[in-house]
Amino acid sequence: MESNEITDKSLKSFTAPLFAGATAGVTVSAALYPLDTLKTRLQSPQGFYKAGGFNGVYRGLLTVVAGSMPTTALFFATYEAIKNVASPMMAPQYLPLVHMMAASVGEVLTCLIRVPIEIAKQRKQTYVGNQAKSSIGILVHAFRTGGLRNGVYRGFLPTLMRDLPIGFIEMPLWELFKKIVKERNDGNISSVESACCGSIAGCVAAVATTPLDLAKTRIMLADDHAATRKLRIAPVLTHIFAESGFRGLFAGVIPRISLFMIGGFAFFGAYETSKDIFERYFHR
Fold it and tell me: Among 4, 64, 202, 281, which is most exposed with the fewest C-beta within 10 angstroms?
């Protein structure tokens, strides 16, 4: 009996974040996609209006919705699993390190799925390299012209270097804010309160990582795969700074803050609500 209870508990601790992460990812991707499109076009080297302006802001939506389910599900399943295993072994003051480590491992794994999706999505959003209309066609074209490294996984390192700092900042802040709320509310926290914590944490992460996001976008949108091999984060940002200064480095920061503020609220709120529903279902 005890063995069955442990198995059920382990299953629930894995499947609940998996289900909740997928639900949260789809919810936010579908709701906030136009803002993401505008942010990408603001960061495009061809300029906002040449990249599409305000037209077709839902181009590439199906690609992102289909990809957001496995990426967010994998991230939260990994994050919660590592956190549940490592937290009991650490003193309370070191828990932020656990959250950083869990978020980092989750981000590395999800980037294996996220990068090809980003390639297809951003090329649809900005009409770059869009000879093929379907997302699969865009990725096939990218593979033929650049292979895996410089085609399908172009910008993998910049994406990872952008997403790792987001995890370092956002997840520990989210956990910290939740802890503060719980301490002031007799150990309780609602989904709405957790969503507000995620929204604030997301805003901080958004501002801090905008230059990295900009470099990632420029590298992914580069039309010449041969030239792309020479593109690296530092030279790209140095070139942008030389042309446009600090303002250039933070191109798209307002839509990005909006994305993270609204998205953080919706994402973490949907995650906590879905997780709670799923856990209650397994208690039956």
Answer: 4
